[in-house]
Amino acid sequence: MASAEMERIYKEHNLLDKAYAIGAKLDSLRKLENLDSKVSEMHIVDKKYTEIKEAGESRTIFWDKVGSAAIALILLSIIAYSFVYSRDLRLEKRKMAAEIVQMKEDMETIISHPQPDVKLLSTEHFFIENDKLTERQKELLKLISEGFSNKEIADKLFITESTVKYHVRNIYSILELKDRKDLFRKMTNI
Question: Of the CATH numbers 3.40.50.300, 2.40.50.90, 2.40.240.20, 1.10.10.10, which one belongs to the domain with range 114-187?
Fold first, then answer.
C-alpha cells in the first residue's frame, strides 16, 4: 500500500522515472503475491485431493474386509454343512450295515430253525405267484431276499443305487410292505 501511495506522489510531482521504478517494483510484488496465493490455493486443492483419496482408500479397505469376511463365512458354512452331511451319511451307512447284518442273521435263523407251525415259502414260488411285479422287480426281490444290500444289487445288475431304491419302493408299494423286515415276515408267513 505504501508503494502505491509513493507512486501516486511521484506522478503528482512529475517524477515519472521514480514513479515508473516504484510501479515496476509494485508490479513484481503483486506478481509474487499472486504467485503466493496460487501456491496456497494449489496446496489447499492438493490437501483436499489427498483427503478424498485417503477416504476412498479407507472405504475400499473397509469393503475389502467386509467382502473377505463374507467369503470366509460362506466357506465356513460350506465346510460345516459338508462335515454334518458326511457324518449323517456315515451314521446312515453304519445303521444300514447293521440292519443288513441283522436281517441276514434273522434269515439264517429262520432257515436253520424252522418252526413247526410256520410255513416257509420258497422265494421262487413267492415271486412267481405275484403277477403284479415285472421281471426286473422279481429279479430285484430275489436278490433282496438273498440278503444283498442296495449297493450290492446295483453292482450286480449294473444299475445305479438310486434305481435300486426306486424299484424297491415300487415293490414295497405293490406288495403293501413297509420295509425289508416286513418282506421277510411275509415270505415266512409270520
Answer: 1.10.10.10
